[in-house]
């Protein structure tokens, strides 16, 4: 099956995932994590991309970002990927690819899904049994969003800011979101949308994206659903 073209729309958040080739380690020492984040900040400014949440795992990264241009995220990921591969190969005396093909991404509906994806990202180390609480993991935006550590890389999204006008209370509200577990169904929805380049959001949001992008935002209906009036009207 032909690969769908990426959905890149200005001012709409994207959940981006980039994995190490064959699950190989992509971060070895603290220096690696620090350099990656520094370069992420550099290229985010260069290509006018706002970074809202992130986690750097040992063999992959999750990023929640909003581009201000149509090509911003693609340019950022290409530049960052090339730079980091050169650094990693030189540092660890290796050659060849580091990342697993092109990065995965999905557009994220700010209403109802933005904070959900932010939690999903920052809970990755907990789901991987690396820590028991996201506050224990140093390489994630939880340090900024929930605890208040100043991370210049982070641009706070309006949805996050609207949690509370007071900074400390906002962080408290954000921490409270983590008291609610993300269901397996929702975890799968986020993963599938990102891996297959479908849109993560409400039906209304998906319809808006389809109008703007000119391509489907979700999989075609199957079986009897394809014969329904709703399906025929839409497609």
Automatic annotation (TrEMBL):
Sequence segments annotated as region (Disordered): 211-235
Residues covered by the Transposase IS200-like domain: 9-124
Short name of one Pfam family: Y1_Tnp
UniProt xrefs under InterPro entries: Transposase_17, Transposase_17_sf
Name of this chain's protein: Transposase
SMART domains the record matches: Y1_Tnp
